[in-house]
Amino acid sequence: MTYVAEEIHSQPDCWRRAAGSEGQSAAHDRLPRPGERVAVVGCGTSWFMAMAYAALREAAGHGETDAFAASEFPTGRHYDRVVAITRSGTTSEVLALRPDTVIVGDATSPIVDIAEHVVALPWADERSVVQTRFATTALAVLRASLGSPDLSADAQKALAMPLPVDVADLEQITFVGRGWTIGLAHEAALKCREAAVFWSEAYPAMDFRHGPIAISGVHRAVWAFGSVPEGLAADVAKTGATFLHTESIDPMAHLIVAQRLAVALAEHRGLDPDAPRHLTRSVILGRSA
Ligand code: F1P
Fold first, then answer.
1. R_g of the chain, CA atoms, integer Å
2. Residue 282 Cα, ligand 1 centroid: separation in angstroms?
3. Residue-level pLDDT, tens digit, the chain, 289 residues
4. pTM score, two decimals?
5. Number of helices (H), then strands (E), in the chain
6. Ligand 1 pocket test: which of 53, 73, 87 has the largest number of ligand atoms within 8 Å of its C-beta?
C-alpha cells in the first residue's frame, strides 16, 4: 500500500482523536476567541482548509474570518489574529508572515518558535508528499472548536463506499461547493492534479454555470460537496456529464471519497501517488519568488 493510501485509511482514527481529549487539549486556549477578527492563511492544501474553517467560523457567529493564500495576505489590513495552517511548518510564505497562531504537523519545525500559540498535531503528520489526513484532521480540530461532533463514523463510511465513478471512463472532473465546502472542492481538485496529473477544476457551485459548465460533457463529471443549488443537477445532466453528490455523509467525509478517487486515478494511469510531479513535502521558495 502507498503511504498516501495508508494515511487516507487512518482518517477515522485521526478524526476521533481530533474530536476527543487529545485534539481538544492541543487546541485548548490556543485558537481564536469568539469576537476576534481573524485571518487564516496557508499554501495549497492548507490554504483550502483555511478557506473551509474561515467560512464555518464566520457562519457560526464567531466573528469576521477571512482566508488567504499566505503569499496574498493583505498586510495593510488589521486582524486581531493571523492563524496559519501548515503541515511542515517550513513553507516559506507562511513563515514570512510570522502568524500569531499555528496549526502544525511537525512540532519540531521553525514555526513553533515564531507563533505565540501552537496547536501541534504530530499524530496526524504524514509520510506522503500529497496531504490527506493532516489537512482533514486540522479541519476536524478546528470544527470541534466550533461545536462540531465527532465525525469519525462518517469517515469510516467514506472508506467503505464504492467510488461513484468508473476511473476508466472518466476524462475530466469538476468539484463544486457552497460556503465552507468551496474549500473542500478546491482540495479535491488539487488531489486529482497532484496524485494523478488528472484534469480537475473547482468552483463555487453557484458560479459553475457562469462559464465553467462549457467544459462539461460525456465522460466528464461534476462532483458537488454539501448543498446543491436548485437546477444544477439537471443542467449538468443536459451536458452529458455525470453529476455526483451524496447527503449520506458529512462533506468532509465526502472529501475522503475524492481522495480515494485521486489515488485510483493515479493507479489507473500507471502513476505512483506517493511521487507527485514537481512537488516536495514542503515547498520553500527563494527570495526572488
Ligand atoms: C503545503 C503544501 C501542500 C502540498 C504539498 C506540499 O505545505 O504546499 O499544499 O500539497 O503537500 O506542501 P504545508 O505548509 O501545509 O506544509
1. 18
2. 6
3. 999 999 999 999 999 999 999 999 999 899 999 999 999 999 999 999 999 999 999 999 999 999 999 999 999 999 999 999 999 999 999 999 999 999 999 999 999 999 999 999 999 999 999 999 999 999 999 999 999 999 999 999 999 999 999 999 999 999 999 999 999 999 999 999 999 999 999 999 999 999 999 999 999 999 999 999 999 999 999 999 999 999 999 999 999 999 999 999 999 999 999 999 988 888 888 854 4
4. 0.97
5. 11, 9
6. 87
Q: Is the dihedral of CA 205, 206, 207, 210 positive or negative?
A: positive
Question: What is Dmax (Cα atoms) for the chain?
Answer: 54
Are 224 and 208 within 8 A, CB to CB?
no
Q: Is the CB of 88 within 6 Å of ligand 1?
A: yes
Pocket test for ligand 1, best of 3, 4, 45, 284 (most atoms within 8 A of CB): 45
